[in-house]
């Protein structure tokens, strides 16, 4: 049975959501951002319903903390309909959102879609990552498909690792530089562009039937669906 964490401080709405979900899913409850953080340290979930306005740690800040550790699908529950706020949530790693008040059937449909589409990252004892038809060996900095192997640079491997760990997240060049180079970004686009271009070429040599890296024009890159 799929495990869903409901993070909502409105008790009446929280209980309604639990009642609707409990016959199909195993439901866990948190009524604040702080409580959700503590619960997440002890449990794993297949999906998180996350309210935007929470006491303690707010929903947007909690989303960032979640994305630091796991790739669990997150659907934001928000009363805010401004496009800028919604865009920021999606860019921060939210998979979907639903605006209050919402239709129960719509909520159930969105949950079903996220659970169906979620592609779990498989990680073996050697710390390898898998996506579609390729395997990323983080020990040897190699890309593998069946019996074929291509060497990657450390930075290329770390960029691909970043994308695979959070396949729904869109990364700006600033995000990539700060996560991979561990330094402040000062507009050095050429360095990042070269590494991404080389990575794309090496992936294509192994598997030219699938697309692995998408360009989101004007924003950055993400892993292909």
UniProtKB/TrEMBL annotation:
<feature type="modified residue" description="4-aspartylphosphate">
    <location>
        <position position="51"/>
    </location>
</feature>
<dbReference type="GO" id="GO:0000976">
    <property type="term" value="F:transcription cis-regulatory region binding"/>
</dbReference>
<dbReference type="GO" id="GO:0006355">
    <property type="term" value="P:regulation of DNA-templated transcription"/>
</dbReference>
<dbReference type="InterPro" id="IPR011006">
    <property type="entry name" value="CheY-like_superfamily"/>
</dbReference>
<dbReference type="GO" id="GO:0032993">
    <property type="term" value="C:protein-DNA complex"/>
</dbReference>
<keyword id="KW-0902">Two-component regulatory system</keyword>
<dbReference type="InterPro" id="IPR001789">
    <property type="entry name" value="Sig_transdc_resp-reg_receiver"/>
</dbReference>
<feature type="DNA-binding region" description="OmpR/PhoB-type">
    <location>
        <begin position="126"/>
        <end position="225"/>
    </location>
</feature>
<keyword id="KW-0010">Activator</keyword>
<protein>
    <submittedName>
        <fullName>Response regulator transcription factor</fullName>
    </submittedName>
</protein>
<dbReference type="InterPro" id="IPR001867">
    <property type="entry name" value="OmpR/PhoB-type_DNA-bd"/>
</dbReference>
<feature type="domain" description="OmpR/PhoB-type">
    <location>
        <begin position="126"/>
        <end position="225"/>
    </location>
</feature>
<dbReference type="InterPro" id="IPR039420">
    <property type="entry name" value="WalR-like"/>
</dbReference>
<keyword id="KW-0238">DNA-binding</keyword>
<keyword id="KW-0804">Transcription</keyword>
<dbReference type="Pfam" id="PF00072">
    <property type="entry name" value="Response_reg"/>
</dbReference>
<dbReference type="GO" id="GO:0005829">
    <property type="term" value="C:cytosol"/>
</dbReference>
<keyword id="KW-0805">Transcription regulation</keyword>
<dbReference type="GO" id="GO:0000156">
    <property type="term" value="F:phosphorelay response regulator activity"/>
</dbReference>
<dbReference type="InterPro" id="IPR036388">
    <property type="entry name" value="WH-like_DNA-bd_sf"/>
</dbReference>
<keyword id="KW-0597">Phosphoprotein</keyword>
<feature type="domain" description="Response regulatory">
    <location>
        <begin position="3"/>
        <end position="115"/>
    </location>
</feature>
<dbReference type="Pfam" id="PF00486">
    <property type="entry name" value="Trans_reg_C"/>
</dbReference>
């Amino acid at each position: 049975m799929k495990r869903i964490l409901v993070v909502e401080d409105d008790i009446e709405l929280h209980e309604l959501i639990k009642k609707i979900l409990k016959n199909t899913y195993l439901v866990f409850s948190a009524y604040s951002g702080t409580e959700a953080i503590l619960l997440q340290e002890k449990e794993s979930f297949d999906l998180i319903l996350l309210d935007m306005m929470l006491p303690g740690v707010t929903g947007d800040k909690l989303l960032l903390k979640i994305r630091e550790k796991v790739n669990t699908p997150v659907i934001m529950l928000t009363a805010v309909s401004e496009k800028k706020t919604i865009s920021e949530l999606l860019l921060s790693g939210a998979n979907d959102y639903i605006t209050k008040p919402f239709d129960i059937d719509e909520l159930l449909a969105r949950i079903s879609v996220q659970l169906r589409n979620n592609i779990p990252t498989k990680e073996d004892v050697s710390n390898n990552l898998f996506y579609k038809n390729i395997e990323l060996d983080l020990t040897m900095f190699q890309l593998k498909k069946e019996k074929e192997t291509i060497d990657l640079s450390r930075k290329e491997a770390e960029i691909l690792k970043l994308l695979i760990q959070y396949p729904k997240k869109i990364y700006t060049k600033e995000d990539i530089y700060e996560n991979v180079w561990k330094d402040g970004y000062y507009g050095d686009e050429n360095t990042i562009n070269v590494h991404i271009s080389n990575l794309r070429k090496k992936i294509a040599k192994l598997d030219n039937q699938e697309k692995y890296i998408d360009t989101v024009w004007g924003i950055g890159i993400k892993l292909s669906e």
